[in-house]
Amino acid sequence: MPQLGAYHDDAVYWLSARSLPASYQIPQLPEQPAQTKYPPLYPALLSGIWAANPAFPQNLPAATALQWSFLPLYLGLAFLYYRRTGFAGLPAYLLTLVLAVVPMTIVFATSLMTELPCTVALLAVLLLLESREDVSPRRALLAGVFAAAAFLIRTNAIVLIVSVPAVLILRRRYRSALAFAAPLMAAIAGWLAWSAAHASPFKDDILSYYTSYIGYYLKTFSWQQLPERLWVNADAVCGSLARLVLFQNSDEIWLRALGWVMTAAAVKGVVTLYRRGVRHYIYFAVPLIGVLLLWQYPPDHRFVYPLLPLYVAGLATQLVAVAALVGKSWRSRKTSDRVAAVFVSSMLALIVGGCVVSIAYGLFRTDRKSTRLNSSHLVISY
Asked: Which long-range contacts (CB under 8 A, 24 or more apart) does 14-18 make?
């Protein structure tokens, strides 16, 4: 793992894990405060690597293997989710293939980051709940356990406490809603209580950033800047979702406009999925995006990655619908309809082809960049 530290947070997770189980600290800071920002489940997994082999960087191959093990789980659960929500075998395989080859999946499968393990836990929740049949309290309880795991891996999974009970209550499954909420509420209450008991007495900006989402947010919040923040973050969410499948780092205006168009198409496809009965993933996406719109800085790929399976499904659903409309227009005898069909099909081919080329380029560049990175600076800092 020569790229350790490239995202900064991965090094924070790795060093925080070293302090477990004796304590849960941020050892790279001079004050060594308790780690009250990042929930402990993912660092607890990493702490097993430190316990088995405390020699750094010799223990990094084991850390890489652990992180990569989430990839087959992710793809397997995503395929099962697509099948559960009505996609036939071949489309489900193709959608899963897209998830497998987007460059950010490769990055998150080989870096000590929480995006992939959190999405695995989220998909487990959705598989247990996304069904046309009534969800039993026992099944809801198991889904609540996975939801608790998702929250203890990544804090923004807390929106599950709103989204899942909302669906179950609308279906009048009150006992199932309570069964789901119980383990998740226990996890939330336990983590918040521990964080409050070990809160850092230091209140400067750096310590607030490292120890408290809420504390740092309050330091950066301004009612006057809220409208601008909402607009900037909305643009970032749309662009970041699109750039997961149209892999680009440039910020040219035409790419941003294309990202908005792709995201609008994906939203239209998600609406179609909603009408087909897909509920829980969509109810999860809405409050999560609401949180990201209020975030103190523009959300990048990392923040929207748990929405990638839904985004890909929505985009594919809308592309199929447009392709069917193009075919219908071409079969008509009107010249204007055929001209429109040729134009739209050309645009679709360009967008799909551009996504394929950009993904291939992203994979090549990500691999080459990783091989050029050197971890000597990490050894020095360690």
From this structure: 14/46, 14/63, 14/112, 15/382, 16/43, 17/43, 17/44, 17/45, 17/46, 17/47, 17/49, 17/50, 18/47, 18/50
CA-to-CA separations, 303 to 237, 339, 377, in angstroms, rounded: 9, 40, 27
What is the rounded distance in angstroms from the CA atom of residue 3 to the CA atom of residue 110? Answer: 9
CA nearest 71: which of 21, 118, 37, 105? Answer: 105
Q: What is the pLDDT of residues 62-105, one digit of tens each?
A: 999 999 999 999 999 999 999 998 899 899 999 999 999 888 89
| Rounded Cα distance, 264 and 287, in Å | 18
Helical axes 308-331 vs 226-245, angle rounded to 10°: 70
d(CA 216, CA 57): 32
Q: Which of 62, 212, 41, 6 is nearest to 117 (CA)?
A: 41
The pLDDT tens digits for 19-57 are 888 788 888 888 788 888 899 999 999 999 999 999 999
135 DSSP assignment: P
